[in-house]
């Protein structure tokens, strides 16, 4: 298949941050030409961008996609009560059909808001893989390991399940399996080490929650005599495979350990603020230490969207305000976090995160004819400070069009919304009936 | 004129926060019927809401509307350099045509994002009044007083200009003139007192910036031996007429003065965070003291949108995170700030801010068929945590339809965008040519 995008303003996100006016040509799964001169080539799809902004697809480095079913179900509650009274009892009732409905809903939202790759961690990740592959979104799917039985697996079978999961998916073109021990406070050191061994054996990424809340840091310190990052280091989990989600309560010493361990960080500002963790992942220091940092939405139950444009704006503003310094996290740096740096976290910097010849064709187009994007002093400013996911008109993943002029090509919008409504009610009922 | 809205989910925002399924009937400028039974009446316009959420229009209590022309022109800079090198030199070049173009752009953005009332303060407020009246948006327009010459007035003529402005507009049905001394650090005590006298003589509101930055508080203390709120109190400006913008750096004693003075506050979380003032208007304490608090976007140069939905989410999350408490500023309270409480700030609580029979017909409809609003556990949660301005499909102000099914009825979208682009270039040039 081939796609020709005509007359775009191409925000390449290459190392020089070049912005070109021109055409993009995609053949099969690859960007084969970027040109400031009009390309005269045949293509199965021709898209007239007409000044629209052509960008690399956004990369969401931390979510729990089926939790879309719990969007708006329980807000504004203390974390412990929220988890113990609302989230966990509902999660215990999850069946494969709920997972399918919630995943489809999340994929619909991600496609419609320009996210082309996502890093997930949830029960039934194999079902999430099937649904994601069908929708055509690039999934980095973390099989969860945790020291209690889940709706899907008895504890004793998890490692085996994880191994089967990896074997099933490791040759897939858009689904990448990985190992996701839930956290240092829910996994024993032994489970953590088993997770690491699996990731080594099959050469996969690792993903875990780390230092999201003060309570977590306190618990891990009490139990193991070390802060979470130190604890992970002690058990060998700080490696180039590891992406740590949150890191809101880490120290300078931990940043040094993270740098020396070559780990990456997924920063989730909206979720952290809504749950009110009070923590601020120290982005200036992490970036100074050259620790790769990507952005994540976290699950929709604590955000309540999967909109990476919103996450970019929250990221920029949260850190400026916290440090009393409007110059930190400038727009270009934040757009990098959501694209180039996200790809680096996933060890995909040679394939994803920018529009360059030879890279995978994960491309989105923003319709720029909008009062919010007027006047056009600087498109990167508008992308970070004024855009919403709803401004995305076209989405291409791995060379395949998933949304063209706001129309979904791989998903049935109305059916997905109706099904999600039905399965959410089946889980928890609804206030408005 | 009459308008019938059928089959909406009516988020009344009345004192009981009732949510009804049914119809809304508007005659001339007034809501005359809300009914859970289908209304069988004639109407000039019939809107099939079909489950869409019908809400009172949002109230933006602080902006500088022509600054839309500077959206994205200069971001991520230290405040002083931003003002002195980028904003003020450009503002000095402002001509009426720039004001018209920027105001039209801002109105287009406000209509498209469901804002039906706004409180403004800028040069050439009379031109802003003409353009706003023509667009049909409800404007509370503050004639600025400041102790130096502006592009519009020599200092000596300002009070006279303000008086003419008030006389011209005070009987208008949708434009309400008011007196806007810029701030305690740019207005002498004498100017402040003159502003107050004018507002008393003509029974208008007063609007000023107050305690936005630490530098401002320090300057006022150095010059007058009092913090800004104390200083305003000393000169008689704390009254039921006064709406103070920002209040990010105030003390408990100042809150007591504000309560006893019956002033209102316009809280602008997005602008405060982007400019990185570091201050947090102490909303829990202000609301506890029953000080009316509304939300504002501030100008587009420091936001960079006029989207009140975004401002609601930032408001909720900013305070939760700052106080380490997810229970504060729950969704319903934040929606109140943007509607009922905004009306209270403007002393319009008997006419605006909720959908009730006898109130002015400022009504918006949100298209609820959206992945982000699925599932529907709680519409108020979705409005605050998941909606964007771009979800608004219909806008009615004072009984007049301004946007129907995303089509503008009083504004020429393409021409406004082209003009804004042209006049912005005329002011500052553009990076992308």
The CATH topology label of the largest domain in chain A is TIM Barrel
Q: First CA to last CA of chain A: what distance?
A: 47 Å
Coarse shape of chain A:
globular
Beta strand % of chain A: 15-25%
Mean pLDDT of chain A: 96
Your description of this structure?
The structure is a homodimer of 433-residue chains. Chain A is 37% helix and 22% strand. Chain A is an alpha/beta fold. Chain A has two domains: 2-57 and 359-408, Urease, subunit C, domain 1 (Roll); 58-345, Metal-dependent hydrolases (TIM Barrel). In chain A, strands 1, 2, 3, 4, 5, 14, 15, 16 and 17 form a nine-stranded mixed β-sheet that branches. The longest helix of chain A is centred in the N-terminal third of the chain and has 17 residues, at 96-112. Chains A and B meet through helix 2, helix 9, helix 11, helix 14 and helix 15 of A and helix 2, helix 9, helix 11, helix 14 and helix 15 of B.
How are the elements arranged and paired?
The structure is a homodimer of 433-residue chains.
Chain A: E1 2-11, E2 19-27, E3 30-35, E4 45-48, E5 53-56, E6 58-63, H1 79-91, H2 96-112, E7 115-121, H3 125-135, E8 138-145, H4 158-169, E9 175-181, H5 189-201, E10 206-210, H6 214-224, H7 228-234, E11 242-246, H8 252-261, E12 264-267, H9 269-275, H10 283-288, E13 293-295, H11 308-323, H12 331-338, H13 340-345, E14 363-366, H14 379-385, E15 392-397, E16 400-404, E17 407-408, H15 413-428
Parallel strand pairs in A: 1-4, 1-5, 6-7, 7-8, 8-9, 10-11, 11-12, 12-13
Antiparallel strand pairs in A: 1-2, 2-3, 5-14, 14-15, 15-16, 16-17
